[in-house]
Every structure is written in C-alpha cells, then in structure tokens.
Design brief:
The chain has about 80 residues and is an all-alpha fold. Helix content is about 75%, strand content about 0%. The chain has one domain.
Length: about 80
C-alpha cells in the first residue's frame, strides 16, 4: 500500500473518530489543524509518490503523530520511516 493511501486512511479514520465523539484527545483545536494540513497536502498531490509523502511526513512529524490513532503503530512506522 502506498504511503499516500496510508496517510489518507489515517486522516479519514481520525476525522471519523472526532466527528463521532470517539476521539480521546483533549487538544481538539491542535488535532483539527493537523487534519486540515494533512488533507490540504493530500488534495494538492492526488497522485503523490512515496518519496513526496515521506518528506511531508518527516517535515510534519508532530501532525502525523497526532493524526495516526494510537493502536496503529505499524502505520505510524511506515509514515515516519
């Protein structure tokens, strides 16, 4: 699975958790900003290669750590490798 798909799935999953009230995070505004940044990147590069996604993830590591759900350690490793 491509890194872009991994990031898109993480954003979708976290956004769904927030909308349905399942998110345990207390920093809602920080989480919302991270989701918006990631979605803006994904919309800007609809066919981004793994290298571009990896570079973005490294540059926005804090955002990626906030977005990826706590029980998805493998996804987090892939995105931040």
């Amino acid at each position: 699975m491509s890194l872009r798909t991994e990031l898109q799935q993480a954003v979708t999953q976290r956004d769904r958790a927030v909308r349905n009230g399942y998110s345990q995070r207390q920093d809602h505004s920080r989480l919302r900003v991270a989701l918006i940044r990631a979605q803006k990147f994904l919309n800007s590069y609809p066919v981004a290669k793994d290298e571009r996604v990896a570079a973005w993830c490294k540059q926005h590591e804090d955002d990626v750590r906030i977005i990826v759900m706590g029980n998805h350690n493998e996804r987090l490793k892939k995105l931040l490798q």
